[in-house]
Amino acid sequence: MPELVEVELYRRMAAPLVGATVSSVDVVDPRFIRGAGSAAAFAKAITGRALTGTDRIGKLLLMHTDGPTIGLRFGMTGVLGVDGDDGLDELVYGPSRRDPAWVRLRIVTTSGELFVRDPRILGSAILDPDTAALGPDATTITAGQLAAAVRGSRSPIKARLLDQHRVAGVGNLIADEVLWRASIAPQRPAGSLSAVEVRRLHRHVRSTVADLLDRGGSHLGRMTDQRKPGGCCPTDGTPLQRATVGGRTTWWCPAHQRQGARR
Q1: pLDDT averaged over the chain?
Q2: Options 203, 222, 248, 258, the catalytic residue
Q3: What is the value of pTM for the model shown?
Q4: Is 158 a catalytic residue?
């Protein structure tokens, strides 16, 4: 599942194309194009344009041109490829095979070809996406911004972290890893966290994302392999518990995360 980490890796893959000119656009599946206008209009708007930069906000990849900005979302199973090479070997919730029929968009430039493969078509491409509703990116969010995101909320803290309007980029795997490292139970009302706990959570949001970027995927956290029946906490060996929190399957250690006690 592409979370912030995967989309940042996609951005880095696309970055070498900056400076190239879009020579052709093949919207293989018109359903992948969102927003106003048709697939033909999308292709026409960026053909002949120079790529001027890449950016990322949360799970949204931005490719700037000297005209409109291309926004790419990857849903649960979307993969970016450049010159035939996939950005990732696999996605945790995606199929392992690579069916050419799942390619939804190809953008050919004078420096190389970019494509998006999305089996379930939960991702999308859009021109000039509106980013105003997204919260601060998890790589740069400040302690004050995180405190504002949780203040007074009765929602579970995990649901608050998953809310892209509050914190952009955190998905299911990152949220479980962050809360496990921060010793905070995922079901706790976000507004019940003390100032000390919010500061600790902030440190772990930033450090966990940085660590997973170094490891190469949001599925490479310290507790990820134990997110399964019979799995145990890598720290104290306590059997992990499972529930649905914020609409997502959630695993946590009932020992050290129960009260959010400092580890």
Answers
A1: 93
A2: 248
A3: 0.91
A4: no
CATH architecture of 4-127: Alpha-Beta Barrel (3.20)
Task: Tell me the average pLDDT across 161-175.
Answer: 97
Residue 197 is among the residues annotated as catalytic for this protein: no
* Active-site residue, selected from the candidate residues 11, 49, 56, 59: 59
pLDDT tens digit sequence for 217-244:
999 999 999 999 999 999 999 999 999 9
Q: Which of 2, 136, 156, 186 is catalytic?
A: 2
Q: Which fold has domain 143-252?
A: Helicase, Ruva Protein; domain 3 (1.10.8)
User: What are the residue ranges spanned by the domains of the chain?
Assistant: 4-127, 143-252
172, burial (CB in 10 Å: exposed 0-12, middle 13-18, buried 19+): buried
Concerning whether 186 is annotated as a catalytic residue, the answer is: no
- Annotated catalytic, 31? no
Residue 111 clears pLDDT 90, i.e. is over it: yes
